[in-house]
């Protein structure tokens, strides 16, 4: 859970920097594509140093269509809509709308979790769903308090693409985890999805350049910061956390709910570095509800471990996950 919260801090950099680049007139598709172009060499070096390139290369050759499809969905249809929405809403609004992914992740559980020995699908974890809805209520309060500063048309132009992103991200993450986590570690899976999304980014750039031109120097540097902070550090932390929780739908729902911390971090980041109104009293209530929801999730997982005791399922970590945990 702490890995998830730490990941939400680095993920929040995405929302703040995307708005900053949008305010400077940078085309949204370059903000999206450059992040993954910059991520690629970092991840190649990490996986190479860990000796994981041969296994990943073999997996991509044997399952290239699956990597292409789920990489495009999990990264392409996740991040392109987020960058597009940055043109129509401030960082806090995009980050707030993004929290729909908490509920989407819980609702996807029955279809994206391994079947049990009897061949039955996992049920939706009800307690985690209820707590996730409470987290979402806090987000709604924050957005309602700030909605007077955003036009209705801009709200929906910024909101609907985020809904698509909120479904695509847990879908791609969980599907590749289900397909490849038994043979590949977190870093290999992250690199595989990035490679799988490259054709999508190339097509997006080729079709976008004639209309919007090339990126500026500031957009390139901003995208580099986002690539390292959000694309490499945050995504690795979050994927490691979901891999560790893969054996339990309840724990997986709790880890995904830690993304609600992005709202708080993005709001603070905007107040410090970007123009925007401070939260109203109702907005601060929303922040308090989000923090309370995280505390409830923490209590739930602690209570579950206490009652399971020695019978709790062990989770075997790979070397990268152990180092991240330490």
Fold and architecture overview:
The protein contains 15 helices and no strands. It has 326 residues and is an all-alpha fold. It has one domain. The longest helix is centred in the middle third of the chain and has 29 residues, at 152-180. The two termini are 13 Å apart. Mean pLDDT is 81; it is low at 310-326. The chain crosses the membrane at residues 28-52, 64-82, 88-108, 152-169, 190-214, 220-239, 281-299.
Which key phrases capture this entry?
326 residues, globular, 15 helices
Q: How many structural domains can be distinguished in the coordinates?
A: 1
- Mean pLDDT rating: 81
In the predicted model, the low-confidence regions spanning at least 5 consecutive residues are: 310-326
The computed structural class is mainly alpha
Distance between the termini: 13 Å
Order of H and E elements:
HHHHHHHHHHHHHHH
- The proportion of strand residues reads under 5%
Number of strands: 0
The residue fraction in helices comes out at over 70%
Largest sheet: none
Number of helices: 15
Tell me, what's the shape? globular
Rounded to the nearest angstrom, the radius of gyration is: 19 Å
Pfam family, one: EmrE
Protein name: Putative multidrug resistance efflux transporter
Keywords: Membrane, Transmembrane, Transmembrane helix
Organism: Alicyclobacillus hesperidum
Task: Summarize, please.
Pfam families: EmrE (PF13536). The chain has 326 residues and is mainly α.
Give the topology, please:
Elements: H1 2-23, H2 28-49, H3 53-62, H4 64-85, H5 91-98, H6 100-107, H7 109-112, H8 126-146, H9 152-180, H10 186-212, H11 217-244, H12 249-257, H13 261-273, H14 281-308, H15 319-325
Helix pairs in contact: 1-5, 1-11, 1-13, 2-4, 2-10, 2-11, 3-4, 3-10, 4-9, 4-10, 5-8, 5-9, 5-13, 6-8, 6-9, 6-12, 8-12, 8-14, 11-12, 12-14
């Amino acid at each position: 859970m702490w890995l998830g919260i730490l990941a939400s801090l680095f993920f929040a950099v995405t929302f703040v920097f995307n708005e900053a680049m949008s305010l400077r007139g940078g085309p949204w598709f370059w903000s999206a594509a450059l992040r993954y172009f910059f991520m690629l060499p970092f991840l190649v070096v990490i996986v190479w140093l860990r000796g994981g390139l041969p296994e990943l290369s073999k997996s991509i050759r044997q399952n290239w269509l699956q990597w292409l499809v789920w990489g495009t969905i999990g990264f392409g249809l996740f991040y392109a809509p987020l960058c597009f929405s940055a043109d129509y809403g401030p960082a806090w609004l995009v980050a707030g709308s993004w929290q729909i992914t908490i509920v989407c992740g819980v609702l996807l559980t029955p279809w994206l979790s391994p079947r049990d020995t009897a061949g039955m699908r996992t049920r939706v974890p009800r307690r985690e769903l209820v707590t996730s809805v409470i987290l979402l209520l806090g987000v709604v309060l924050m957005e309602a308090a700030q909605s007077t500063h955003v036009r209705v048309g801009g709200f929906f132009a910024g909101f609907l693409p985020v809904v698509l992103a909120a479904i695509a991200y847990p879908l791609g993450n969980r599907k590749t985890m289900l397909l490849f986590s038994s043979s590949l570690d977190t870093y290999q899976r992250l690199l595989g999805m990035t490679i799988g999304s490259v054709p999508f980014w190339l097509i997006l750039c080729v079709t976008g350049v004639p209309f919007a031109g090339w990126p500026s120097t500031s957009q390139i540097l901003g995208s580099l910061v986002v690539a390292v902070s959000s694309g490499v550090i945050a995504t690795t932390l979050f994927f490691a956390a979901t891999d560790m929780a893969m054996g339990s739908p309840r724990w997986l729902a709790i880890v995904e709910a830690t993304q609600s911390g992005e709202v708080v971090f993005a709001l603070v980041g905007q107040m410090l570095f970007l123009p925007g109104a401070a939260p109203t009293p109702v907005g601060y209530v929303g922040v308090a509800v989000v923090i309370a929801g995280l505390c409830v999730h923490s209590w739930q997982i602690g209570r579950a471990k206490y009652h399971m005791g020695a019978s709790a399922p062990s989770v075997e970590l790979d070397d990268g996950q152990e180092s991240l945990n330490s």
